[in-house]
Amino acid sequence: MAEFAVDPFMDLYARRASGMSASEVRALFAVAERPDVVSFAGGMPYVQALPTDHVLEVVRSVLSEQADVALQYAGGQGRLQVRRRLAMLMAEEGTFADPEDMVVTSGAQQALDLLGKVLIDPGDVIAVEAPAYVGALSAFSAYEPRYVQIDLDDQGMIVEQLEDTLLKGTRPKFVYTVPNFHNPAGVTMPLARRERLVALCREAHIPIIEDNPYGLLRFEGDSEPTLRSMDPQNVIYLGTVSKVFSPGVRLGWAVADSGLLQRLILAKEASDLCASNFMMLVTERYLADDAWRVNLEGLVSVYRSRRDVMIQALQEHFPADAVWTNPAGGFYVWVTLPPYFDTQAMLAAAVDRKVAYVPGTAFYPDARGRDRMRLAFCYPTEGRIEEGVRRLGELLADEEELYRELSQ
Amino acid sequence: MMANIAVLAGGRSPEREVSLHSGHRVLTALQSRGYVAFLLDPAEDPIVETLSAASVSACYVALHGKDGEDGTVQRLLQLLGIPYTGPDPFACQVSFDKVLAKEALGAAGVSTPAWAAVQAAALRDLGASGMLRHVVERVGLPAVVKPSRAGSAMGLSFVDREADLPPAVMSALSFSDAAVVERKIEGKEVAVGMVGSPDEPLPLVEIVPKSGVFDYAARYTAGATEYFAPARVPPEVADACRDEAARAFRTLGQRDVSRADIMIDEAGQPWVVDVNASPGMTDTSLLPMAAQSAGISLADLCERILQLALARA
């Protein structure tokens, strides 16, 4: 009897699929989805706060007035009317965008994939933050780049480090950054550093991909200008309605110069022909009057209170030598523990105690981040946040005790 | 009329996903044989009420890990008077807990690698710091460190240097209240399945993970591991493995279905490293492969296991 072909296609997979494998952490997340587990893992918008009557009215109006359009294919670039609304969202942060320079995508996540497809050849170097948004790493990794990682501090990407990298002769094809309320780090890049980053990349002729999903979720202070507004020629901008409206409509966009835009549209058509007309119509109508602003203000105030509760609970329950970021917006707090903690190994014990987080290792293309964790405060209620952080704090105290006993 | 069967799968253990895959395979297999069967996930539905309302004839236990494989669900089913597949509660409890299983196998003279337990309570409550030195003396290096009560190689690590032992023990203790530190046996890894009689194990399946380590990803990513059935070993070595597995099955009170994981060292000596009372039934699982190489289809296999439980009604 011969060898068992568990997977008859085993020898056929492309090299880019080799990194796609089952993982222990993903298996644990399946348990963490249980309602008795306080999950700080997923960055899920609190869609319960949306006025369902209003959304229902919007959907009803789309189907009663424009069913023939809603149920039909769209063009590859996406409806002009929705692009106008998306340009309006960008104007909220002081960024001018011409709807002609936009392509509508299936969330900003698809824009990341399309950019990878259009820009990355196997072996190309690309610059990402360390830590970086895990979804961007997954999207780019399919195109087999080599990563150069630029560390973050409280002010986002350390531009001097990028400069050093360039001086040493490394030439990344692009620099990917989340300047506002970073995922996972929660930090925001101040104006001076933005200016430096934009100037550096312009001089070096290296485009910047600016991913800005959380910009309108600001809890306090004034918004910083987007990188795109500072250098429209060299900055590719990605936006999404997932956080200001709903991730369920799967609607994002990219803004780019015409040459790149044309390729992105062709890549979009090759990938899935077009965005959903139905969802574009729902979105353009949702954004048509000022009701969305009221809803967003409500959401921001919910997130702000949850952030406050989480920071308070961390001060109360976490070890004195742990440090965390205090985000002025967005969804995430990034915790750095003493180096003997291994958050990946600890996840099973956390889920057993009915609390979950994302281990730091998810956000680095190498094995770093074992002493880090990302806590999302967007979804659990304030009481659950307090309870979950308390459970985590107890776990950390027990782990620390174990570590001391074991290392004697 | 055919019997009404509940396939228990899912649950809240870290192996929830694996169990759901197993359960759906078993469910489809039993339905293809005409059984009226449904899947019951104890994490979703109240188990006592659901079983009582459905007046089931037997349960197929496709739960893996804590609560499903350690005697908990078996005691509950016994209380409800519902026959179920697999060993009785005591046997489940012992075979699932690697500390107890290693004690039992050692006492019965079954060949199992040198080992020591590191219990969290000993460290926390007895002030057993400094014990790792003794563990290394007893077991030697390189060693395998695994949680006492977990499956699917979760929380498992290999340790070559003494300095790497503390983090490995911490990882294992994340899954369980005790860690087993076991001498690493270099050689071939095989699985020996049994269905029906512990004395007649199925042909050996040889496991060759492409990464060199049969970890979670190697187990559940199709194509990450090559399997050979029967194993590419001399007949006398295969016989020795089957004998050792049979001894382990009897010692640990296995019935209906079980799987022993065995390392064969370079001298051809088998070492039993684990016994599973609720072996995986997924697309990449070892027991269905072993059965297939013996000419038993998955539907036959599931039906045969179920019939053994029904016979106890």
Structural write-up:
The complex is a heterodimer of chains A (408) and B (313). Chain A is an alpha/beta fold. Chain A is built from 13 helices and 15 strands. A five-stranded mixed sheet of chain A has the order 3-10-9-8-7, sandwiched between helices. The longest helix of chain A is centred in the C-terminal third of the chain and has 27 residues, at 291-317. Chain B is an alpha+beta fold and 313 residues long. Helices cover 39% and strands 22% of the residues of chain B. In chain B, strands 10-9-8-11-12 form a five-stranded antiparallel sheet. In chain B, helix 1 crosses helix 12 (298-310) and helix 4 (89-96) packs across helix 5 (98-107). The model of chain B has no long low-confidence stretch (mean pLDDT 93). The A-B interface holds A 1-4, 6-7, 9-10, 13, 20-24, 26-28, 30-31, 34, 340, 342, 345-349, 351-352, 398-399, 401-408 and B 12-18, 43, 120, 123-124, 127-130, 132, 150, 152, 154-155, 165-167, 169-171, 173-175, 203, 205, 215-217, 219-230, 283-284, 289, 292-293.
Helix content of chain B: 25-40%
- Structural class of chain B comes to alpha+beta
Gyration radius of chain B, to the nearest Å? 19 Å
Uncertain spans of chain B, ≥5 residues at pLDDT below 50? none
Summarize model confidence as the mean pLDDT of chain B. 93
Q: What's the story with the biggest beta sheet of chain B?
A: 5 strands, antiparallel
The sequence of SSEs of chain B as H and E is EHEHEHHHEHHEEHEEEHEHEEHH
Binned, the helix content of chain A reads 40-55%
Q: Tally the beta strands of chain B.
A: 12
Main-sheet strand order of chain A equals 3-10-9-8-7
Number of strands of chain A: 15
Q: What is the makeup of the main sheet of chain A? A: 5 strands, mixed
Distance between the termini of chain B: 16 Å
pLDDT < 50 runs, ≥5 residues of chain A: none
* Structural category of chain A: alpha/beta
Q: What is the helix/strand order of chain A?
A: EHEHHEHEHEEHEHEHEEHHHEEHEEEH
- Provide a count of the helices of chain A: 13
